Amino acid sequence: MDVELRGITKRFGSVVANDNVNLTIRGGEVLGLLGENGAGKSTLMNMLSGLYAPDEGEILIDGKQVAFDGPSDGIEAGIGMVHQHFMLVPVFTVAENVVLGVEPTGQLGSIDMKRARRQVAEINEKYGLHVPPDALIEDLPVGIQQRVEILKVLFRSADVLILDEPTAVLTPQEVREFFGIVSMLKEAGKAIVFITHKLHEILEISDRVSVLRQGRITGEGDPKSLTEADLAEMMVGRPVSFTVDKTVADPGRPMIEMDKVTMLDETGEKVLDRVSMSVRAGEVVGVAGVQGNGQTELVEALSGIEKIASGKIIFDGEDISHATVRERHSLGMAHIPEDRHKSGMVESFTIAENMVLNNYYAPEYSKGWAIDWQKVAETAARFCIDFDVRTPSVFLPGRSLSGGNQQKMVVARELERETKLVIASQPTRGVDVGSIEYIHERLIASRDEGDGVLIVSSELDEIMGLSDRIYVMYDGRIVAEFDNTGGKADRNTIGLAMAGAHEGEGAAA
Amino acid sequence: MTDVTTTPTQAEKLDSAANRKARVMGGILIALALLVLFALDVVPGQSATFRLTTARDAIQLPNLVVPGAFNMVCAAILAFLGVRQFLEGGARWTSLSLGFGLLVLVLAFLVWATAGTAFNLTSMLKAAVLASVPIALGGLAGVMSERVAVVNIAIEGMLLAGAFAGALIGSLLGGWIGLVGAILVGGCFGLLLATLVVTFRMDQIIAGVVINLFVLGVTSYVSSQVFSEYRHLNNAKVFRAWEIPILSDIPVLGPMLFNQNLFVYGAFILVGVATYYLFHTKNGLRARAVGEHPRAADTLGIDVYITRYVHVTVAGMVAGFGGAFFTLGNVGRFEENMTNGRGYIGLAAMIFGRWHPVGALSAALIFGFADSIQQKLALLNTPIPSEFLAMAPYIATIIVVAGLVGRSRPPAADGKPYVKE
Amino acid sequence: MTERDDLKGVNERMRALLARTTHGRDDFEDLVIVPLFAVVVALICGALIMLATAVDLPTIGRSFVALAVGSVGSLSAWSETLTSAIPLVLAGLGLGLGFRAGLFNIGAEGQLLMGGLAAVMAGFALEGLPMVIHLPLTLLIGASVGAAYAAIAGILKATTGAHEVISTIMLNLISFELLNWLLRQPWVQREGRSDPISKSVPDTAALPKLLDFIDPNLRLHAGLFVMLVAVFIVWWLLFRSKLGFAFRASGENPSAANYAGMRAPLIIVLAMATAGALAGLAGANQITGVLGRASPGFSAGIGFDAIAVALLGRSHPVGILFAGILFGGLEAGGRQMQVDAGVSIDLISIIQALIIVFIAAPLLVRAIFPWGFRRPRNGKKGGAA
Hints:
Shape of chain C: globular
Number of helices of chain C: 15
CATH superfamily of the largest domain in chain A: P-loop containing nucleotide triphosphate hydrolases
Shape of chain A: globular
Number of strands of chain A: 22
CATH architecture of the largest domain in chain A: 3-Layer(aba) Sandwich
Largest sheet of chain A: 6 strands, mixed
CATH topology of chain C: ABC transporter involved in vitamin B12 uptake, BtuC
Helix content of chain A: 25-40%
Distance between the termini of chain C: 45 Å
Helix content of chain C: over 70%
Number of helices of chain A: 17
Number of domains of chain C: 1
CATH architecture of chain C: Orthogonal Bundle
Oligomer: heterotrimer
Distance between the termini of chain A: 51 Å
Radius of gyration of chain A: 24 Å
CATH topology of the largest domain in chain A: Rossmann fold
Structural class of chain C: mainly alpha
Structural class of chain A: alpha/beta
Strand content of chain C: under 5%
Number of domains of chain A: 3
CATH class of the largest domain in chain A: Alpha Beta
Number of strands of chain C: 0
CATH class of chain C: Mainly Alpha
C-alpha cells in the first residue's frame, strides 16, 4: 500500500507545526523521518493516523484521496501508529489492550476473550513477537510493551506502521532485536515510517530518509549516500558536532558517596537495592540504564525527595542520609529534575518566581518574613542574561518559554550559586540542539570548577559523550561500572549490562 | 569490584509508606480493643438476648443469647488484629483488618447496648438493608462515573433531586411515573455534570459542589414556595414491600432480603448488572479504558467524550433512582435537605469498595448497619447521647477514607479533564 | 571600550527584562467581564425560575426592586449588606487561601460553627474581663478552635492522604451533631430554657455597633475592620511572604514544590489551619457582632456560600472582598424580597450557585456570549514533535 502526503500544513494558533509537507510512503520499504524535538514529526504523523486534521493539503492512499475524521478512520484505512509514549492501559492484560476498540463479542455484548487470546497468539506466532497474552501490561518490561503496541497495530491489519521514536526506551541489544522485527514487517510488505532523532539508526534501518526542520522538509535522500554529518546539518540547519569538547578529568576528594542504600516503594518493593556509588570532585559520572531500573529513585534518594530505608549517604564528609531536600540544597547540592514540567518549575509562576523556587528563603531575597521581589526580579534578569534564557520579560509566566529556554531557566537556577555537586537528570530531554550544546558546556564547566557532576540519562550517547565514569543500573542495582576516560568505554558491553547480563559479575574498570 | 550479592538480608530495618500506614492502623485497632475492653464491658453474668423471629413467622428460631464475655472475645480479636498490623506491618491486609475490625466493634457495641435486655435483631437487620439502599446506589453512581474518570461529588445533589422529583411527580401522576421521573431528573443532572466537566472543562469538584448547592437551593425554594401552600403536590404513594414467596420465609435472611420494596431489589440487581457490564462486556472494557488511559482509548477510535457523557448520565439516573427511595420508598413526602449527606457517604462507600460495584454495596451495607443501630438503640436507653451515635457513621467514613486511600487505586485518569489534541 | 559597550548592552537587556508587562485584554475579560456576565445571567435565570413556579410578572418585578433596594437602596440596606458580607469575606478568604494552596476545603461551615461556639463559650465563661482583653481574646479563641478543627482534615491528608473534600464534609456533619449536643449541656445551655440555646455573650466580648448613634437598629459592627485587616493580611501572606510563596507553589504544582524543598505535609496542615482560623474568626465575628448567642444551625450556610465567594473572587483577597459584598447584598436584598414580594429567600442560593457555574466554567460564558469576547485563543501549546 502506498501513501502520499501532498502540501500538508498544520497550524496551532500562530505556530506553524507543518508547512507544505510532501511525503511518500511505499509498501515494503522503511522511510526514516528525522528531525529535532519540535520539528513537527509527531504532528505530521498524527495527521496521517487521523488524530488531527490538516489545515491544508491532502492525503492519498493508493492514489485515492482520503479524509480522516478521527483515529478510527485512520485505523480503517490501514494506518497504525506506535506512539512514543505507549498507549497501553497498565491495569489491563495484553489481550485486553490488543482487542480494545475491536473486541470480538459473544452473547449479551460480552467479550469473547477466548477468541481474542487465540487471535493474539496467531499474530504472535506469525511475527515472532513472543508476548504473553494474559500478562498485565504494568508487569511487563518496556521492550515487551512496545511489542504489544506493534501487536495492537497488526491486530487491526494495518499496512502502514508509524513508529514514533521507538528506540528511545530500549537497550542497544533490544534495538537490535527490534530492528529484526522491523525487517520482518518490511518483508511482509508493510510500509514503515521510522521516526527518530538518532542519526545512526536512520542510516542503519531506513531505505529512504526525509528530514524535517521547523515544520518543513529540508532534505531527502538515500541513506547509503549520506553521512551522519549530512543528516545533522539538514536537521539543525548548520554544521553541528555532537562530541563535547572536554579535557581529561582530574578527580579530587569524593563529593558524594552512597553506601548500600536501599529504598522501598509504597508497596514495600525494593526500588533501590543496596546501591553503593560515589562521585568525586571534578569528574562527571553517568548513570546508564533502561528507564525504570532505579535511576529515578537513585536521584530521589540523593536529593532527599524520598526517604531511604537503609544505608548511608555521605556528602563531602557529612552524613546526609536523613537530611531534608532543603538542607542538602543549602549544603551545595544542585538538582536538575528529570521532568521540568512536573517537578522543575511552576508553569503559571513568573520566570522571576521560578528562578527562586528553591531558594526564595535565602537571606539575600528576604525582608523579614517577606520576600524582596525587587531583588528577586533583578537576580532573575541577570540569570536570564547569563544563561541565555530568551524572554522579553522576567514577569512572564514560565509556560511562555520554549522547552529549551525552560530547561535553561532550571539549569540557571541550579548552577548560579556555590555548588559542590550537580545532579542532572535527563538534562536535555525535549530540548533543541542549540540548548543541548549549551547545557552540556555548562555541565562540563561545573566539573572544571571542581564540582562533582552526576548525569542520569536515557540517551546512552549523551552519557558516553559527557561522562568520565559510567555506572549501569539494572533492576534497582548498580550492576557495572566503566571507566570512560577519553571515551574508551565499550558501547556494546554497556548495552549488555543495561539488559542485566552483567548481573553478579561486576565489570572491569 | 562492584558490590553485588544476591542474598537479601531480612534484618535490614525497612520502612515504607505502606508499613507506616499499617502501623497507624494497628494503633487504631489496639485503641478500639481498649475501648471495647473498658468502655463496652458488660457486667459479668449479664447477657444480651437477640430475637431472630417473631411469632408470626413461618419458621421459628430460638432467641440468640450472647453472654457478656463475648465482648472480651471481641476485644481480643481487635487486639490480635492490631498487634498483627503493628508488628508485621501486614500492609496487604490493612483494609481487610480495618473492615473486619469495624464489624467486630459494631457487634461488641450491640451486645453492650443490649446487655440485660432483649432486642429484635432481624428487624434491625432489615432496617439496615433499607438504610443502605441510597448509600449503595449513590456508591454505584460514583463507580459508574469515576470508572470513566469523572469525580462525582454531585451524587448528593442527584439523590436530592431524585427524592424531590419522585415526590412531586409521584404525587401528581402516581408512583411509577414518579419513579421514572426521578430517574430522568437524576439523569439530567448527570448530563449537566458531564456537560460542565467534559465540554466546558470545569473543575470536577467545583462542578459537583455547585450542582449540590443548586439542587439544594431549587428544592428548598420550591418546597418553601410551593409545597407549603399546595400540600397535595407533596404527598406521593409509597411503594410497599413485595414479599417473595418461599424465600421470604427463610428466618433472618427472608425478612432482610426477600420482603423488601422495589428499591432494595433494584439496588441488588443494578449492582449485578453493573458488575457484568463493567468487567465482561465490550462497552465496559472501553469505559474502563477511558478511565485509565483516555488518550490510548482515543487513539483506538473510542470517543472519550461520548463515553464520559453516557456513563455520567447513567450515574445520574442511578442516583435519581436512589433518591426516589427517600420519598417513594420511605415516607412519601419531600423535606428540605432530606438526603442529609447520604450521597457523600455513598462516595465513601465507593472508595471503601475500591471502585467496584460489589465492593460499594458491601461498604454500603456496613454503613447502613451502623445507621440502623443508631436509630434502634435510641429505644434501648443507652447512656450514649444520640448525637454521638449519629456521628458514628461520619467518623467511620473518615477512618475508612484515611485508612484506605493510597491502598486502593482509583482509575488512573480520575478527576482529570481530557483535552483532545 | 568594548567592555563598557558590553556593560551598556547588559544593562539595557536588564532594563528590558525588568519592564513590567501590562495587563492585557485577556485579564480584563477574565477578571471583569466573566463575573459581570455571570451575575447578570444568574439573575435572569432566577427570574425564569420564579416564572416556572407560578410567580406572576408584577411580583417578579417587585422582587427585583426589593432585591435592589434591600441591598443598596438606603443606609440601613448598606448596613445589612456589609453585616452579611463580613463573615462571607472572612470565611471566603480562608477558602481562597486554601484553593491557592491546592486544598479544596468544603469544611468552612463546620470550622465556622466550631469557632463561633468557642467564642460563645469564651464569651460567657470569661465574663468580668475588661473589654480590651475580653473581646480580642474571644475572637482569638474562636479563630484558634476553627484552626484546630480544620487542622484535623489537614493532618489526615498530610499523613494518610485522606482527601480533604470527604473529610471536611464529614467534619461538617460531625460539627452539627456536636453543636446540638453541646447546646443541651447545662454548662452551655441558657438557664431556664429547655430548647437548645446557649448563654449570651456579655457586652465586654461583643463587637461594638458602628452606626447605632444614627439608628440603634443598624447592625453594622466593628467586625468590618476585622474583615478589612484580614483582607490585607491574607494578601500580604499570599503574595509577599515566604510562607505564601510556598502555599502558592504547592497549590500550583505540588511535585515541583516538593522538589524545591518545601515540605508538603507541613504546608497542607498550615494552609488548612489558616483557612480554619479565618472561618473560625468568621463564626466568632457572627457571634460577637450579630447573634450574641449560639443556637442550632447558627452558621446558616455561610460556610457554603463562602465557597462561592472565594471562587467568584478568583481566590484573590481583593476579589473576595468585592464578591463577599456582592453576596452580602444578595442576602440582605433577598430578605427584603421575601418580606416585600413573598418570594422565598432560597431563590438567592439558586442564584448564587448559578453564579459559580458561570464563573468556574468561563468557557460556558464564552459559549453563551460569544460577542462579549475576542475570538477564542487556540493553540497555546505549539505542535509537539
